[in-house]
Amino acid sequence: MDGNDIAAGKCPVMHGSITNTGYTVMDWWPTALNLDILHQHDTKTDPMGAEFDYADEVKTLDFDGLKADMRKLMTDSQEWWPADWGHYGGLMIRLAWHSAGSYRLADGRGGGGAGNIRFAPLNSWPDNASLDKARRLLWPLKKKYGNKVSWADLIILSGTIAYETMGLKTFGFGFGRADIWHPEKDTYWGAEREWLAPSDKRYDDVSKPDTMENPLAAVQMGLIYVNPEGVNGVPNPQETAKQVRETFARMAMDDEETVALTAGGHTVGKTHGNGDGALVGAEPEAGGIEDQGFGWFNPNMNGKAGNAVTSGLEGAWTTEPLKFDMGYFDMLFGHEWELTKSPGGGNQWKPVEIKEEDMPVDVDDPSIRRMPMMTDADMAMKVDPAYNAICQKFMADPDAFKDAFARAWFKLTHRDMGPKVRYVGPDVPAEDLIWQDPVPEGNTGYDVAAVKAKIADSGLSQTDMIATAWDSARTYRGSDMRGGANGARIRLAPQKDWAGNEPERLARVLSVLEPIAAETGASIADVIVLAGNVGVEQALKAGGFDIEVPFSPGRGDATDELTDADSFDVLEPLADGFRNWLKQDYVVTPEEMLLDRAQLMGLTAAEMTCLIGGMRAMGANYGGSKHGVFTDRIGALTTDFFVNLTDMAYKWVPVDGGTYEIRDRKTDAVKWTATRVDLVFGSNSVLRAYAEVYAQDDNAGKFARDFVAAWTKVMNADRFDLA
Known about the structure:
Elements: H1 3-7, H2 25-28, H3 54-57, H4 63-74, H5 89-100, H6 131-145, H7 151-165, H8 237-249, H9 255-266, E1 270-271, E2 315-316, H10 327-333, E3 337-341, E4 347-351, H11 376-383, H12 385-396, H13 398-414, H14 448-456, H15 462-473, H16 503-520, H17 524-542, H18 565-568, E5 575-576, E6 581-582, H19 590-600, H20 605-617, H21 640-645, E7 650-654, E8 659-664, E9 670-675, H22 676-683, H23 685-695, H24 700-715
Antiparallel strand pairs: 1-2, 3-4, 5-6, 7-8, 8-9
């Protein structure tokens, strides 16, 4: 193509290569295995480089200076986005809340721990309307403090400081949230193809909130929690209460925390619906290039905060919306309420009768009083018996309410940060909270070599050692930094009884390892991991490699008292492709469940491939199954899985139950059997490319080294003290 071509109007780039308007691989073959979930947050997307460590950098932050600047920002109203009553507190609380509020307990995804609200789809959810303005208001602070504070920390801090400026004694704050630099586009937010589609689409029965599809928590696409106007926008506080309870439970909140958060969240600030929402412009991701990332342009704003339109509901909940006080309870329980419409047409509730002096003042003109409002979710606090009882308790003891809210806010904004060892800064609370999954400090002063020798002489099989260590460590999920081998919770309820952990085998192995821990001074957690390392080293030796598996002592042992057993139920594996196990048949394929597990464990596609091949070669399958064990040298860490998978001397024949036979092409004799998880490494073009690397004659040594590195990564995934 030359200059004449361009001048003649011919496109100088390949169509679809820049704007991605052409069909993708997944468009052409929608049932193909999509590995994108393992390619998120690649180092190429990170502008900071491999040497940058935010956990170290944030420790040098001027914490007091940042907090002082944040307090000044709250009352520095800008003409381009004026503050309600001259104070940005309500907006910043909403920003922090909606950043943290996308967290869901089932898979630990969502939340404010990575600054994901900066990217699509979250930055353009209907429920996040105008939060683009809040982030721009924070930009001068991010610019000033630079690499020493992440966007994720800055966003959550803004809400906490806002509450402090409004009179709340907060519970504390922990810095340490490292930013991501690419949207988590493969997080499943629901199957709907339109914003705010009727919630029936994600329920088997919308009248039974517990039938909502897992792992979802929000009731509709584009909402953080529930619809403030009622179920599918139809006011009915009794029904809304059911959805509130289920949604907050899926975000790890009990009834008392739910009431505290609702009341404390609505004690300050207001909703915005003083105008026609249909006139508001497109969301940020749909805006023109001249909009520069701004969305929801309001042609009728006219420089007045009172003209803002976001949710479509309009009004404040309390008489003094800039004070954290008991005003929410006074307003909700001090009046009878009736349905009404906001200027924007939204369903909301207003007092049947109210004195003018009890109304909040206008956000722009303090000489004018405005009617307060309640949402359907607020009315649920009054009509639901359990919620009402908690409200009565709080009204009788305001200090209890303030403490409950401060703790619930801290939990909401820190739930996805993982163990407290990851927290940084002067305001980290000394108290250990059970939802932080606390683990006592472990011993590092014992003789590691002596412990390994005792394990090797214990009579445990190689498979017993490897499987137990793996089962202990595989629960880790990087989404919210929960699970893992540290704490040895595999020996406690509920983990000790999980089907995937083979309870009888587990109990037998622990009965051997626990006395070794007691004799040597090592934690049981360390001994479990060491046993796995001993098993891997035996397999390496059998494969012709003299490699020591790295080990870092210091894991502690959790207790039942330090374990929130109910919240650990969601960590139970329903499948483990690494051990070729599936609890039952599911709608999604076993290989898709393998990818989900690998991504939660923080593995790359190459690491996943390497681990699968090694686990098969060592015979570490669940229950001793031979599926995928493509070797005559079981127990030796070899590349046989890959060599035989890619050998065209064999053919692959499906049989009943989702299994396959590997047959000799000449004799038709069955050589091995396999599952979908095994054969996907030969059928998927990307995974086959990795498998072929390890099948090469010159890569046996590389495979051994790569397996040891990947194994160690899994065993140390939750060792934040090593960072």
